[in-house]
Each structure stands twice: as C-alpha cells, then as structure tokens.
Amino acid sequence: MAKPKVALYWAASCGGCDIGLLEIGENLLKLIDAVDIVFWPVAIDVKYKDVEAMADQSIDVCLFNGAIRSSEQEHIAKLLRAKSKIMISFGACAHQGGVPGLANMYNREMIMERAYLETPSTENPDKVLPQTSCQVPEGELKLPELFDTVKTLAQTVKVEYIVPGCPPEAQTTWMALEALINGQMPPVGTVITDNAKAVCDDCPRKRDVKKVKKFHRTHEIISDPEICLLEQGLLCAGIATKGGCGARCPRAGMPCTGCYGPVEGVIDQGAHFMNAIASVIDSNDPDEIEKIIEDIRDPAGTFYRYSLSDSILRRARV
Amino acid sequence: MSFEPKILAILCNWCSYSGADLAGTSRKKYPANVRIMRVMCSGRVDPVFIMKALESGADGVLILGCHPGDCHYTSGNYKTIRRMGMLKKLTEQMGIEDDRIRLDWVAASEGDRFAEIIKDMTEKVKALGPFPRNGGDNG
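^ Those are the sequences you sent over. The predicted structure of the assembly is below.
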C-alpha cells in the first residue's frame, strides 16, 4: 500500500507550529517512515505550482497552521482544501485566529500606518505603503492583499480536525499523527487532545476558595508555588481552557493564557473566561467592583488572547 | 422611513418582569421597539447572550433585575453587577457604544420606571443607528 501523502503549510503564524512539530523527537523518524511529505514550505522545496499540478484529493492529510489574513493565505487554504482528503487545523492561529487574530482590534489602514509610518524605528518620509500591484520597468509586480479582518481556517474552508495549542504540545501532535499513521482517525470535528476537560484538571496546584479582591499582572507579584494562581489574583485562563497540554504554564508559575481553546461545549472562550473571573470577584459593592475590574488593563487581549477571530463579536468596531 | 431599533430586554422573573406587567396593566405607554425575554434571575444573564443578541439582530440589549439588596435569590444581581461591569469594559475596548448595553433595576411596583427606561433606551439606541453586525467587515 502506498504511504499516506501529507502536506504542511503555514499561513499567518510565527513558525512556532513547524518547530513544535519537531518536538515529537524520535517519533519524527516513525512519521517519515510512515508517510510521504509532499509539501512543507519550511523544510522542502516544493512550489505552489507543484501543488496546483497535483490531482484533487490526492493529498491524504493537510496540517495547516496559521490564521488567514491575506489573499495569498486564503488562496492556498482553498487550494490545499481541494487537494486534500482531510484538513487539520494545526495550532491556535488556524484554530481560533491566535495572537495574529488580535489585529482584529484594528483595521487594515491602522495596521499599515502603524507598521510603515508610526513605529519609532521606521523612517519613511515619502510615506510609501505596500501596494497590491506596482509598475516597474520589467513589468508589473504583485503583492497579496492584506485583509481587514483576520479569519480562522474553519471560517475560510471546511476543516475536519483541530489540533490545538500555541504551539501544540508534542504529546498532542503525536496523538494526531499516530492516529493518522494507524488509520484510526477519531470522528470528524474532534479537537484532538488527551484531556477534554479544563487545564485545571492537569494542574497540580492546591485549590481552595476563589475569592479575589485584587487582580495582579504577572510581573507585579511573586506568586506562591503551591497555590492556584487565580486564587492569588493572577488572571489564569486554565478554568476556561481545554486541557491536554499538561498545564505546563501554571506548573512553571505562569498563568494559562488559553492557547488550547475553549472547553467542550463553549462557543466563546473569552466570554467564558470573563464570566469565571466575574464570579471570583469578592465584593458586592458597585464602587469596589469597579475598582477591582479597573486592574484588568486589557480585557480583550487577556480574555481573547488566542480566540478573538473565533469569538462571537469577531472584531472591534473601529 | 426612520430607523426603528430592535432592543432585547432581559428581565428577571421576580421584580422586573412584574414591573413590566404592572406597566401593562396600568396602561403605561412605551415604545414597541423592545422584545422581552424572561429569565429567573438577572444573575442568569451570560455575556454570551448579549453578544449573540447583538450579532443576530438586536441594536441594543437591556438587562433589568431587582434593586441591589432585593434579589429573590439574595445575591444574583450582585453577580450581574460584576459580570456587566466586566462586559462593559470589554465592549468599550471593542468599540461598541456604551448606550447599547444597559443594566438597570426595576422593582415589581415600578411600572412607571420600566416605561421610562424603555423610552430612554429606545431614544438613545435610535440615535446610535443600527449595530454594525459582523464587525462592519469590509473584506
């Protein structure tokens, strides 16, 4: 039997998912024995036109990381969808928009102005901004168009499975790849992790009563190594985030930021997290409540660190 | 034709719904822009309800509960104060106008107050215009 064909692609991402894949260590050798990698821009030299020349449905599985925020990324997502039998949304950006999804707090014009005109290290006296097309003596040069709104992969094309994480932990990645190699994929629509409950279920910290009078930012306090971070006033998203990562951040003293996405049955991770935080505020006095909430400097960035594109509101009205 | 906003009013069963009932039986006049949804307690109102309402057709969302201290379940409305305080801080950052989401209190005896709040909210949301659904996305 021919080996299954696998394609990997990166869209709006940092490259961490591709590095994360290497975290599976010696299992990588098993992977290479078991499958043929036909497209992987970060590692092998296969061009877009080579993918275009492939027959439809000829790739067995596509692992797609990164959000969709340009016409090029959208084009490749649609192309790989047509060529692949199974599309896997790999990592937080493809899953929920990820950190690039926070660009939805702004629009294209604001992003261009910030990046090409306003940043202190930029010198651009002629105010040159990237254009989608430009005439030079040799002919026309083209650049992909930047979208106003960052989209998830599932908002762009049909997706069969989700491998969550920023980046997905090695055990999560291997769970998906092993299922693929053994031909035992779970039911379509599954978010592949080994713990469908919350990060708290993997967290060894002691939990007692959650009553918070003051929220802190991570650098403002030295946290107790034994006690639940949320009880210490740190905004830990573990309660609203799917497990499977092994609670690595809370174990290391850093609050969970929510990269594994919402727990089962939740449609808006940020709202769920926000709701949980509201419940732990220890006050019934409106003025005091307002003061406590005031300490949360950036609610959108805190509650929707990885999920703004996938949220109900999707973007700021700017 | 001038813009007529749709306003979703989420009312607690014990005080505010009775207050709305009283407004009706005492034949108080208030704008027909409001659609009422009854919940057992304002503490039942999840921020997701409000976001979903806005994204699926409402131009404003009003949450009415018992006055602080009067909650039928002792503390449900305090939970609402905390949740709505948090939600308002988020929606402000998301560029959603303050007047589109309102938390207020109506007791069972306050039919007049109910009618006044509906009138006031309708006028304010009317002035804001339709809620930009889908983030006012333009590609």
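The mean pLDDT of chain B is 95. The beta strands of chain B are 7-12, 34-39, 60-65, 101-105.

Shout if you want it in another format.
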